[in-house]
Design brief:
Elements: H1 7-28, E1 31-32, H2 33-40, H3 44-56, E2 60-65, E3 75-79, E4 85-91, E5 96-102, E6 107-113, H4 120-136, E7 145-152, E8 155-157, E9 162-166, E10 171-174, H5 176-184, E11 188-192, H6 193-204, E12 213-218, E13 222-228, E14 231-232, H7 264-267, H8 269-281, H9 288-291, H10 300-308, H11 312-336, E15 340-344, H12 353-365, H13 368-373, E16 375-378, H14 385-403
Helix pairs in contact: 1-2, 1-3, 2-3, 6-14, 8-11, 10-11, 11-12
The chain binds zinc ion (ZN).
């Protein structure tokens, strides 16, 4: 049966085209109208009209002229990242970072707090105060802020803006999103830290070319953010990505989760640290004791340095952990067949000794076709990935609510305060 196309269909089509044009300008700008038409397969007339709307609404601006291709020089257009501003908040168990960014997640101001041993309601109150301070002082007071994004450890119900459970921060069913939305009257998005970092790398870092990728972080624990078909995959109860509790050693140690032989107990820093300090206390020789007075003070950086200098204890500890992580990642690759795995966290820097062992083990333990296709890439954004990620979540939801969105970016579910963001033109 043929359906009649009414004005509503036409409007939807226009909105989708407008979103597509804006997304093209954002991704490829500065760009000429003729190239937008080529990339979107829309007619030059349609592009000209949509661009006119976007300029009038403040989303796009012209930024000079491009090379002439045998006629008038074309005007180049770019996304107006100053059309709005975002408050991005990164909560960890050792510090609280709060930043003001533009719509490209470029940081304009940043404040850091070290909430020593602060957890529970007191920490939630500090976050609210810190956001208040940022919004009441400096640039934020003058600017059209469009939303707040928060990254936090623990199990997060992104749709409700509630931190269901965070052992580290002593939060159970904390309605952080509604709390902040009530006070500040912006849309607030709360996201798990690993998912936030995964989205940060996907939108602004090493993950940009990929629609199917896994961000893996190795530090005090092991976690994964799964981006499948361009969207974050949360699982049924929101806990997808618990790579650290993949059991790979049936004779291994008991994990805090109750299981035996979890990956985390073989490759996370506390496990490596325990193995290294135990060996030194047993009398195994190492240069580490010349670098630190007390072996308990050894850090990932020092261990990497010792391994690169050929210290056998450090080499063995990191190689062993690298092999275990490689096995875990080979399992992941066999299961999901991703385009890329982005490795993040303090143990896996660009010059990390572990990296090559992870790579080698993945190659020998994975299935041939997905194993040969997957790319293992070090992170690009480091600790900043979470701030980029939550800023990106605010931006993509803003564009989605504005433009009906044909946007293919990974999305978090919003928690709205009821008031829609308002873009004021400057
Ligand atoms: Zn476990």
């Amino acid at each position: 049966m043929k359906t009649r196309r009414g004005p509503a269909d036409l409007k939807l089509l226009q909105e989708m085209n407008r979103a597509q044009v804006l997304e093209t300008i954002r991704a490829y700008g500065p760009i000429a109208r003729v190239d937008i038409a080529r990339k979107t397969h829309l007619s030059p007339t349609t592009v000209a009209s949509l661009v006119g709307d976007l300029i009038a609404d403040g989303w796009v601006r012209s930024v000079g002229e491009g090379q002439s291709r045998g006629g008038r020089k074309p005007t180049l257009l770019e996304f107006n990242a100053r059309a709005g501003y975002i408050v991005a908040i990164d909560v960890t168990d050792s510090f609280l970072t709060i930043a003001l960014t533009d719509l490209n997640a470029r940081e304009l101001e940043q404040e850091q707090y070290i909430p020593h041993r602060l957890t529970g309601d007191a920490l939630a109150e500090l976050i609210s105060e810190a956001a208040g301070n940022l919004l009441n002082a400096g640039a934020a007071r003058e600017l059209p802020v469009v939303g707040i994004g928060v990254s936090t450890p623990g199990l997060v119900d992104a749709g409700a803006g509630v931190v269901r459970y965070s052992l580290k921060l002593n939060w159970i069913d904390l309605p952080l999103g509604p709390m902040l939305a009530e006070r500040f009257h912006f849309p607030v998005y709360v996201e798990n830290d690993t998912n936030a970092a995964a989205m940060g790398e996907k939108w602004f870092g090493a993950g940009r070319p990929f629609e199917n990728m896994v961000y893996v972080t190795v530090g005090s624990g092991v976690g994964a953010g799964l981006i499948l078909n361009g969207r974050i995959f949360r699982g049924f109860t929101g806990s997808a990505g618990e790579l650290g509790h993949m059991s790979i050693d049936k004779g291994g140690e008991r994990c805090e989760c109750g299981n035996i032989g979890c990956l985390e107990n073989l490759v996370a820093w506390p496990a490596i640290w325990a193995r290294v300090t135990k060996a030194v206390k047993r009398g195994v020789p190492t240069v580490i004791t010349e670098i630190v007075d007390n072996i308990d003070q050894v850090t990932p950086e020092i261990l990497n340095k010792a391994a690169r200098a050929g210290d056998q204890l450090a080499v063995n500890a990191l190689a062993e952990a690298g092999v275990s992580l490689g096995i875990g990642l080979a399992n992941l690759v066999n299961l999901l067949n991703p385009e890329a795995i982005i490795l993040g966290g303090e143990l896996i820097g660009k010059d990390s000794f572990m990296f090559q062992h992870v790579q080698k083990t993945m190659a020998t333990h994975g299935l041939r076709v997905p194993g040969a296709a997957v790319r293992l890439i070090p992170h690009q954004l480091g600790e900043k990935a979470r701030l980029f990620g939550v800023a990106g979540i605010v931006l993509h939801n803003l564009l989605a609510t504005r433009f009906w969105s044909s946007s293919t970016g990974p999305s978090a579910d919003p928690h709205f305060s009821g008031r829609q963001p308002v873009i004021r033109r400057r």
